[in-house]
UniProtKB/TrEMBL annotation:
UniProt protein name: Armadillo like helical domain containing 3
Coiled-coil region: none
Predominant location: membrane
Gene designation: ARMH3
Subcellular localization: Membrane
Organism listed in the record: Sus scrofa (Pig)
InterPro entries, A to Z: ARM-type_fold (IPR016024), ARMD3-like (IPR039868), ARMH3_C (IPR013636)
A cellular component term, taken from the record's GO annotations: membrane
Pfam families: ARMH3_C
SMART domains: DUF1741
This protein's UniProt keywords: Membrane, Transmembrane, Transmembrane helix
Length: 578
């Protein structure tokens, strides 16, 4: 008996004497790509189409194979397909709804991909027609909102979110995606909040919901009034905010876990044994191999939450002994090749786990601790542009936290002590700190440790000037709070002073190279201002008189660095006046 294979929409028999047969759905797609209305010869054409399993590969490939002129000739049929997809979303039969959602994904992606190479048509006109666009998008968004809010199939909700993510991410620049104007008018904000506030829905769809919200918030955020920004800024429902925080914490924790697993695997391998034998000569190369893909989408969501909603600040400090939120779906969603641009969803092993274990050394954890650990990993390597931007976003989030009065209150609270195991870059001149020796301290100590670690480990040829400026700003804002509230923090300030002086020495020793690219005097002035702050107001926030003695000792011991900085400034100033 002849075997049947399914390839590219063909049902191909092993007998060479017969022509290969096509799937019925493929034949129906071919009719749509003709210039005539397919429903003329078959009145039930559209009803039958959505009962057929969608062939995404064939449909997208067919759209890709057409040039701009050919696509314009079948515009009416594409408009008709788009409209019938929206109508099918209101059907009671779930198969029709699923197939309609998948077909919409393929249409949106296919038409946008074609527009990248051929700009001879407008996306909105090609998909639905200018005259019907407003009504079509209104009906589409209402249908998606109803499906997301209903107590129906989790698979359908998952596909709805995938479709929305597909719609949002088809363009490289989200602000150039004109279809999103209709998403702004017909808001699904409440549906997203409902998912985040309801634990079962959050476990299934929380990640996609948070990423979708973060992307929508960024649509033309500086050009016009974005309703999602306004609504997110006034959310005060505790369950919703906690839900968002849990989703973000889980995604960051998963990254931290993957990195730690790779690090342990690397340390126990042959290469680790070899580097120990030769005195860790290649320790930097070993470190570079420990690479886990970062998650900028969830980091963006954290930034928007912290930046826009002051109520979210309270979520940062809330303990979460049970961090696993994603469980195995009861009804797996139909597979649709929809991957939002720039997102990295949690891996399948996390999705299948009920609970992620906390670090053995930490009795309780919270979102801020998880974020600090994540930042300590991401900020280690800023040589490539991707990680440089990720590290910058981490520092921007820390700046927002350091500016907030309430955040500073719990950062400096002596009653909220944690043991935060930050990841440190392997370096030849220092040993790896033992995790068990870490003391329990206020969270601000971990923030300062992270800033000191960055200062010490990034004095290199490709100097990350912007990151250093933001790092010093974070330290300055924390000191301003301590001065204002007279908080005497028991911290090893000498490490910070030493790091700042070494940074000054680096700037001066590489003056010629750095001045060609950066205004190093801005950074030098910020460092000097920090020392002036310690000298002038240190009696209000340094813990003991001996700390003041250590400060003066360090300044006197390294006075040559400050003298050289003064000389460099005077020399450059005189050169400008000539």
């Amino acid at each position: 008996m002849a075997q049947v294979e399914k390839r590219g929409g063909l049902l191909r028999k092993s007998s060479a004497s017969k022509k290969p047969l096509k799937e019925k759905v493929v034949l129906m797609y071919d009719e749509i790509f003709m210039t005539e209305d397919p429903s003329k010869c078959s009145p039930r054409f559209w009803e039958e189409l959505f009962l057929m399993k969608v062939n995404l590969e064939y449909l997208e490939g067919k759209l890709e194979s057409l040039d701009g002129e050919e696509l314009m000739k079948i515009k009416d049929n594409i408009n008709c397909l788009f409209q019938h997809c929206i109508q099918a979303l209101g059907e009671e039969h779930p198969i029709r709804v699923v197939n309609a959602l998948q077909t919409l994904c393929a249409l949106i992606r296919g038409v946008h991909q074609k527009n990248k190479s051929t700009s001879g048509f407008d996306i909105i006109n090609m998909l639905m027609g200018f005259d019907k666009a407003e009504l079509c998008m209104k009906n589409l968004m209402e249908s998606l909102d109803s499906l997301l809010c209903a107590e129906g199939s989790e698979s359908l909700k998952s596909l709805c979110l995938k479709l929305l993510l597909c719609l949002v991410t088809v363009t490289d620049n989200i602000s150039q995606n004109t279809i999103l104007e209709y998403v702004m008018i017909n808001s699904i904000f409440e549906a997203i909040l409902q998912i985040l506030s309801h634990p079962p829905s959050r476990r299934e769809h929380g990640y996609d919901a948070v990423v979708l919200l973060a992307l929508l918030v960024n649509y033309r955020k500086y050009e016009s009034v974005n309703p999602y920004i306004v609504k997110l800024s006034i959310v005060d429902d505790e369950a919703t905010l906690n839900g968002m925080g849990l989703v973000i914490a889980q995604a960051l924790s998963e990254y931290n876990r993957q990195y730690k697993d790779k690090e342990e695997e690397h340390q126990s391998g042959f290469f680790s044994a070899l580097t120990n034998m030769v005195g860790s000569m290649f320790i930097a190369d070993a470190h570079e191999k420990i690479s886990v893909q970062t998650n900028e989408a969830i980091l963006l969501a954290l930034y928007e939450a912290v930046h826009l909603n002051r109520n979210f600040i309270t979520v940062l400090a809330q303990s979460h002994p049970e961090i696993g939120m994603v469980t195995t779906p009861v009804n797996p969603a139909p597979t649709t090749p929809v991957t939002p641009l720039g997102t990295t969803p949690p891996s399948s092993d996390v999705i299948s786990s009920v609970e992620l274990p906390l670090d053995a050394d930490v009795q309780t954890s919270n979102l801020l601790i998880t974020f600090l650990k994540y930042s300590s990993i991401v900020m280690q390597d800023t040589k490539d542009e991707h990680r440089l931007h990720s590290g910058k976003l981490c520092l921007i989030i820390l700046t927002c936290i350091a500016e907030d009065q309430y955040a500073n209150a719990f950062l400096h609270d002596d009653n909220m002590n944690f043991r935060v195991n930050l990841h440190r870059m392997p370096m030849r001149h220092r040993k790896k700190a033992a995790d068990k020796n870490l003391p329990c301290r206020p969270l601000v100590c971990a923030v300062l440790d992270l800033m000191v670690e960055f200062i010490v480990t990034h004095m290199m040829k490709e100097f990350p000037m912007d990151l250093y400026v933001r790092c010093i700003q974070v330290v300055h804002k924390l000191l301003c709070y301590q001065k204002k509230c007279r908080v005497r923090l028991h911290y090893t300030w000498r490490e910070l002073w030493s790091a700042l002086i070494n940074l000054l020495k680096f700037l001066m020793s590489n003056e010629t190279v750095l001045l060609a690219k950066h205004n190093i005097f801005t950074l030098a002035l910020m460092i000097v201002n920090l020392f002036n702050m310690f000298i002038t107001y240190g009696d209000t926030f340094l813990p003991t008189p001996s700390s003041y003695d250590e400060l003066y000792y360090e300044i006197i011991r390294m006075h040559q660095s400050f003298d050289n900085l003064y000389s460099m400034g005077a020399r450059k100033s005189s050169m400008r006046t000539l």
